Amino acid sequence: MNIREKSENIEKMILSKYATLSVNSKGRMKKEEECSIRTCFSRDRDRIIHSKSFRRLKRKTQVFLIPEGDHYRTRLTHTLEVSQIARSISKALNLNEDLTEAIALGHDLGHTPFGHTGEKVLNKILKNGFEHCKQSLRIVDRLEKNGKGLNLTFEVRDGILNHRTSGKPMTLEGEVVRISDKIAYLNHDVDDAILANVITNDDIPKDILKTLGISINERINTLISDIVENSFDKPHIEQSENIKEAMKDLRMWLFNNLYVNSVAKKEESKAEKLIEMLYDYYYNNVELLPNEFEMLIKDGEDIDIVVADYIAGMTDDFAINKFNEIFIPKGWKY
Length: 334
Description:
The protein is about 60% helix and about 0% strand. The protein is built from 16 helices and no strands.
């Protein structure tokens, strides 16, 4: 018996009857030999961490575009906070932490430069629309490793695709990531907005603070504790009604006071124009795409999809530098 098999046996002994056991995975799109040390889900987690798209998240917008301060969240720090919250919940519920972590680390790989601003532009341009959750799946299935993909398990792929509110993950671990994503961004977006002097903690409605907690730490703890208490030994992730309503109220308040705030969003129109111009440029000059994207077109992929792949994979900095390189005139040198 190797180390992986021992780990799989331990899962059978200690995990909840509602947990997803590694040995019960539906497998991968391409069959491959099992690792002698890692379970299939821990192997997926490692593949995501070592991917290029994961590393690029460190220079992608969360809420504030291209923040200059060191303490603002990026898409990478958001991902890590989602992973921490999700693992805490999974551990308390005796679920599969490796599966939970793999889904959490991969859920936002498909986010565009400038966050949801870039997503909105590509969704408007592409005839079939653009969603970052679907792009995350395309990255792990097709784009990573020069078109070979990461060949992840079905359960991780399902959790990545269905992490949005409208999604319906097939595993309890996927449900954990879906709600952990909300817990993370609702609280760290408040933290960033306070740091940026856009809002103060006292601006949050008092009934929300009374229910969830005064500080960010208290609110996260309240939300996690409530989920664990109401979901233990159950087949679905549940919340008490008062906590669920307070969470919805906080989300609505943020949409009305931060996500459309003129101070926080004053550069968005520029970012939108930048994405549009880069897309048009590469659509009409596909020969200037990097080799791996040209190969996708030669393999029969639609040009509009491949150009969107390239644009969506850019970091904020890279997109700005490319824009300057293409559209901003340079002084004469000889």
